[in-house]
Amino acid sequence: MTVAVGRRVADWAPAAVVLVAFFGLWEGIVKGFHIQRFLLPAPDAIWHAFRSNQPALWHEGWFTFQEALGGFAIGCGVAIVFAIVVARWEGLGSALMPYTIAANAIPIIAFAPITNAWFNPLNKTSKMVIAAVLCFFPVFVNVVRGLRSVKPEQLELMRSYAVGELTVFRLVRVPTALPFFFTALRVASVLAMIGAIVGEYYGGSLDSLGANIEQDASLFQFEKAWAEIAIACIFGIGFYLAVALVERFATRWQPRMDTAGTS
Amino acid sequence: MTNVVEIQGVSKQFKGGTVALQDIDLQIEQGEFVSLIGPSGCGKSTLLRIIGDLIEPSRGTVAVNGKSARQARRDHDYGIVFQDAVLYNWRTVAKNVALPLELAGWPRERRQQRVEEMLDLVELRGFGDHHPWQLSGGMQQRVSIARALSFEPALLLMDEPFGALDEMTRERLNAELLQIWEASGATIVFVTHSIAEAVFLSTRVVVMSPRPGRVSKVIPIELAQPRTAETREDPRFFELATEVREALHFGGQVEVIA
Q: Do both A139 and A71 map to the same domain?
């Protein structure tokens, strides 16, 4: 056990050193070169702003995270349903695929002001829509690819057992698609946070991170704006890690870098 | 003797117009080990799949255990092994072997007991909790054989099962397969492109020729059972291998792998 923990610490140490060095350098450069606080505040000033605004910051972060999570759930859910239909009926897939690929290349974030017009900009729905549309495409494309990446021999084996299509779906297609699905979910978790915050820049409730970042920056409260960015990072990274954790659990059968090749 | 497989006038033409098989007649008796050998494109894998009702013939009939191939498939009358082991990485070795039993609705305890027996049979006792990717190619293929035999099918269909393995592993698995064949009493139809493998394993070798796929010669292999390493050094073994080789060349194909 102690050996395993020791190895863990050794694994993490280089990254920790880089982190400390990064903030040290940042602090040093800002102080040493007298960089104006509107360009880049020093980490200790941001930390101070963070400490003194804590309750409000967590509240804003939670508000924005709810938008991101809602959009993530809607976008991924719709994408999964579409992907299953398209993967099952190939004709439909070849009819729709060119458009989904084209749509994937659209800078969806450009629609943010429009969704604010469609929905009340002050409630969460308008931001959820942006987040949902951003999440849709990576999940849709990857799940279709995953469901179709079943090898012909796997299907022949199932046919030899004379089982129905639903059983094949449950026993073969879903597990085969899982790694693809989770890769997409990790991408989508990041996109959902981006979508929610950028949506808020175009007008949103003052309970939200984006609206506050925008307002504080224009009011020269740069330390507070940076503290809000830090909160956005915390929620974003936490979201990503939560998805990665679920992935690890759901696909724990997969060979991994740290376990493969030890036998 | 009853015929486990009865093929009559089977032809297969694929959509592009390629004639994969033409007028195949073949009877396989219970307990036989029949190899289908021929160059690529002779339709040997197609024929195997038609026996298993994975592909439908364009013409002709196939009966397995006296039933239509379709009914036989539905009744789980055969097990199949492919060149790739086709194991599910998300299942342990034991759960891979148990898969057909699960689908057939066996109760858990009986399933576990059978899986133990099967892992013993293929000499993988103690590997039940491993995941397929932790095993070598030869071991994976043994898991695949255990899975195919787990529900005691009368017929075992094998499509170049050892084709991707190195020569030494292949020879060892050949010997093991013969022991399994004897222990299980199953009838085996075995697709290969190795002459030595076909002669060593089979009671009969069916030589096929391409374009269109036909049976060019059926050669009984009357080498003594059980076959051992010495069998490979028997002069009769070489004579039979030569006979198979000549039948393959006569079929119009020059580049044949020994």
A: yes
